[in-house]
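Lab channel / #folding
Pinned by the channel admin:
"Please post every new chain as: sequence first, then the structure tokens as a reply. Keep commentary short and put observations after the output so the thread stays searchable."

First post following the new format, from NK:
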Amino acid sequence: MSLITDLTNIPQREKGGSTALDRLDFQTTFGLDELLRRHVAPGNYGIAFEFHDDIVVLDDVGNPGSITTYQLKTDKSKKWTIARLTSRKAEPGTNKKGPSIAAKMYDNRVKFGHRVQEVYFVSNQPCDFIDQDKYPCSFSNGSPDSVSEFEAAMKAEIPAFKDVDTKLFHYDQTSFGLNEYSNYILGRIVNFLADHCSVQECNHRAFYLGVYDQCRNKSKFLKDVVSYDQLIAAKFVARNDFDQWINDLKLSLKTRPKWSSVQASNSGYTFQELAPIRIQWRNYEAMQFSTDFINLALWKKEVRKRLDQPSVAYSSIKMMIDTESEALKDTAKLRFGHYDRTFVQAALLYEYLANE
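Reply from TO:
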């Protein structure tokens, strides 16, 4: 079977409850950090959030051939040991022991075979069996005693485990701590936009929050997915997605109309009608710098579609704005949480003149 078929059809391992919000933020930060790292390298990567593992990376989202998985755990102070990674706790309400952390990681190899090339254990804390200056590296880089301990424990739990499988396991420590991941990833995005996209001045925080929210939304429960395309849309962020967000950002920096262009446009509105629209124009203008960037970009695309392909031939700008503002009522509720007709009129005027 192809990897595309397996990814679409193989069920995920059951999870014991929802992921705590702080841990979810930690996972999302790591996933976004990994996205930035892979985006500057060749490859049509795809990064999934909470799909078979905390983070899963495909080498080529269009034609996947290999998988890398990441299991993330945080700890306030304790180092990770072979014993902690291979210990098994009794399942709630039973005397049966559940799988160890390492066994859960190895389960992806069982499911997807040799297409899983590396399984990573990642934490904010170091481990005690590999020197920190070697991270990231395979467990096989640990001391001979630790490697033997790991292999013995894995064979006891999974009889099919072979010594050579130890090379599959990798350890890494995050570049950020438990209390600093927000500032860390914001700084990474600022540097990325400056160094690789020639974007020096913009609302970096709005862009960061928008991208972060898109990544975090991918962690939601997966359901009603019957095709690979639906799976990619539901769980993955791919190179094309991030390229599109960057292009949307660059476009927004180029098109900022001034209110004076409304007054000079023969819009068809009276002075009294324009007065409340002008107030909302200022609110919408401020939103370009302070709101969820991705959500705003999706709104702009829908507006652009309506303005570029109007359903009728309008005789005036006023007629177009008034009619389309009603047509966009549901979209406004979705993107802004409510519908304010005057605000939508101002937003439509802004976008219409931004592309004139």
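NK: The mean pLDDT is 89.
TO: also worth noting, DSSP finds 15 helices and seven strands in the chain.
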